[in-house]
Amino acid sequence: MAFLSDPINFIATWLRELLLGWGLAQGAVEAILKFLGAGAVGTFGLALVIFTIWMERKMYARIQDRLGPNRVGPWGIFQTLPDMIKIFTKEYITPAGADLVVYNLAPILTVSGVLLTWAVIPFAPTVFGTDVNVGVLYIVAVGAIGTLGIIMAGWSSNNKYALLGAFRAVAQMVSYEVPMVLALLVPVLLGRTMGINSLVEAQSVWFIVLSPLAALIFFISSLAETGRAPFDLLEAESELVAGFQTEYSGLKFGMFYVGEFLHAFTISALTATLFLGGWRGPGAETYPILGMMFFFIKTFLVYSVVIWIRISLPRLRIDQMLNFNWKFLTPVALALLIVTAVLDKIVVTALADQFATETIYLWVRGLIHLTANLLLGWAALRLLAGGEVKARRVVGQPRPLAVPPVSPPAPETPAAEIG
Predict the structure, then answer these.
(1) How far apart are CA 80 and CA 70, in angstroms?
(2) Cα separation, 336 vs 53, whole angstroms
(3) Cis? peptide before 7, omega within 30° of 0
(4) Contact between residue 218 and residue 275 where contact means Cβ atoms under 8 Å apart
(5) How many Å apart are CA 389 and CA 332, to the nearest integer?
(6) What is the mean pLDDT of each run of 10 residues along the chain (419 residues)?
(7) Residues in CB range of 45: below 8 A, 6 or more apart
(8) Residues 408, 411: Cα–Cα separation, whole Å
(9) Residue 124, SS3 per DSSP
């Protein structure tokens, strides 16, 4: 029964007792278990990419009225395996003049930065890599590793197009980290903690109900940070060949490809964890296996939205993307953070002891925050619409034609007298 309700911890306990029975020290046993756990999470993340690529292809096919993969395996589910073999067997080409150490390290950093995020994501109340009390800060910190890998790839390739692509990619990723961090602070304020598992436990009412605007800003900013459509300027083929990864081939290119797909699924997992209650659900605390099911159901629902957006929207221009970030998302995120902090302090001070049960208090608190979010979102859209109308009027006004000044006619020269 214990195995069925909590198989991960059952196996971990069995291994711990087995290793201690062999005479190993307690510290050595814990180190071995953490090493095995990290390897299991990393292997799971990389293996998950095989399924997400197939899922994305099938959704493309359904939405675009195509067949999609349907030959290799049932429903084409094994199509990704021949693709992996093809990438493994492709020739490695290293450009002349490349910085070999940095050039080869860049794709590894790109994937490892995403895998490190999974160390603090709780799959169930008792299944997580490590419960860091500053888990939100940890997520922001390890997210910068992927940015470092991209700039290293562009700089070390000895290719001006790759370098320009890396510059533009870093400008995009760093810019959208600002509203993402501001949106991340909202669940921290609401949950009174920075621990990821503690934030899940604090969501008696999902944070997407309390602050849908923060969830939307976090989702859009994370989507832009992954470089997927409509924010896929990281690899604008028509402008910069393949961007920062132009000079990579074979498995090195495949590492960037894996990092992109895994990052897209990771932001789905973070959105589900921070705003959709994570593993919370009926019976999840009693049976952790149910918590894992709830977590992955929510994550795959969010990932389906990520795929849907990628299929549906065209690529933005770089000026549109940066204007949207600095002139709309960042001010709205900053205003939301201030409103949430002030309002929650007032609510906690004034209403904490006014209700008979904590459940009523939590729902009233959620209703107040939801109303504030809706009003702030409405005001932001009104300001955005007003600015758009004003800009159109300016563009639509006829411009006076620039007519060159007319010089006075030259005096007529009298005709020479004939004599």
Answers:
(1) 11
(2) 35
(3) no
(4) yes
(5) 20
(6) 72 87 87 86 86 90 88 88 88 87 92 90 88 90 88 90 85 90 94 92 92 94 86 67 82 88 92 94 88 94 92 84 90 94 83 74 87 93 75 61 62 56
(7) 114, 115, 118, 262
(8) 9
(9) strand
